[in-house]
Specification:
single chain, seven-stranded mixed beta sheet, alpha/beta
Length: about 375
């Protein structure tokens, strides 16, 4: 089979060995003679898988017993309302950092539950940088950040010291680098980037903040429900959790999140060096805030954008077209993407430069 270089933003590339093992589980899960998608979630075989998945997450991220680890449904977008429902008291205030589309959506949902203080925003420059030097209000119920901005290609490389509970959407960079979980009160992440397929959402929540908002919360939206039910109050998304578990086994085998960070830093170094060198391309974000998960760039001559996209697709490079809201290119370089794919993309950019040199010169004039 021809090698495909998958730079898709999500659902995204996963380790081949995890996919292969999941395929076996689809046919015969733990020698039960049944598929993982048809076995009861109350069987010992599945309950042990859930326990192993939670233990692996705790090991990889250093999650202590002060926190509950939950597998929920609804994606990270469900957390945009579930967080304020559970953490924001009636007539209370929440603080948010506005750094992109998903942060904007989270702010929109929070407005249904109380006052929202947007402490800083990079919208003035099309979310091309991470705001700095802002003050976090001490009278807010929590402060919400998005650690990596998938669409715009920025990432928080320094997490602010926070005088109030800190909540983070880590959907697109969780497990890509070490995390000091103790700095956070709640972390959430949709699985479909570094962790697994779409369908499962990871929530890591400090137990002592649950049930403090004073609100009447619908059963399925109450974190307490899922802590008590050990993520199986209702039928969990078994296949999404299973493949996530297998992916995290691969992360551990590869050396854990510290090894992932080293791997991702090298991919970023190689790709950004070419973006900065090649006259056909230019980055779209502040250099100090560049994402190691979603490098973004544009053509210096927009007339060549379609030509380069076709050029790349002819070489089996997929998923590099920028989000429909911003255009340009986005090259998602999640954990499972090998360095060789980044090197091949760089080679393709260099080849395009050589074969279109005359066209570049004519457009430049």
């Amino acid at each position: 089979m021809t090698k495909v270089h998958n730079f898709s933003a999500g659902p995204a590339i996963l380790p081949q060995e995890a996919i292969d093992e999941a395929a076996e589980g689809l046919k015969n899960f733990k020698n039960t003679g049944l598929s993982v998608v048809e076995i009861s979630h109350r069987t010992p075989e599945w309950e042990s898988t859930m326990a192993e998945a939670e233990a692996l997450i705790r090991e990889l991220l250093g999650v202590s017993d002060k926190y509950a680890v939950l597998f929920l449904q609804g994606g990270a977008s469900m957390q945009f309302c579930q967080v304020p429902f559970n953490l924001l008291p009636e007539n209370g205030k929440a603080a948010y950092l506005k750094t992109g589309t998903w942060a904007t959506n989270a702010i929109k949902e929070a407005h249904f539950f109380g006052e929202v203080d947007v402490v800083a925003s990079s919208e003035d420059k099309n979310f091309s940088y991470i705001p700095k030097g802002y003050t976090i209000p001490s009278d807010a119920a929590y402060f919400h950040i998005t650690t990596n901005n998938t669409i715009f290609g920025t990432q928080l490389h320094q997490i602010p010291d926070c005088p109030i509970p800190l909540v983070a959407d880590m959907s697109s960079d969780i497990f890509s680098r070490p995390v000091d979980v103790d700095k956070y009160d709640l972390i959430y992440a949709g699985a479909q980037k570094n962790m697994g397929p779409a369908g499962a959402t990871l929530v890591i929540i400090k137990k002592d903040i649950i049930g403090k908002s004073g609100r009447r919360i619908p059963t399925m939206l109450d974190y307490a429900t899922h802590v008590k039910g050990e993520s199986m109050f209702n039928t969990p998304p078994v296949f999404a959790i299973y493949l996530s578990y297998l992916t995290l086994k691969w992360v551990k085998k590869m050396g854990g999140v510290a090894a992932m960070q080293t791997r991702n830093q090298e991919k970023g170094r190689v790709l950004y060096a070419e973006i900065d060198r090649n006259p056909f391309f230019q980055g779209t974000t502040a250099v100090e805030d560049r994402s190691l998960m979603n490098p973004t760039f544009i053509m210096t001559n927009p007339d060549l954008e379609k030509a380069f996209l076709k050029f790349a697709e002819e070489r089996n490079i997929i998923g590099i077209k920028g989000h429909r809201s911003v255009g340009g290119f986005r090259t998602s370089t999640y954990n499972a993407l090998p360095l060789e794919s980044v090197q091949f993309l760089v080679q393709t950019m260099q080849e395009f430069e050589k074969t279109h040199a005359s066209q570049y010169e004519s457009i430049s004039k």
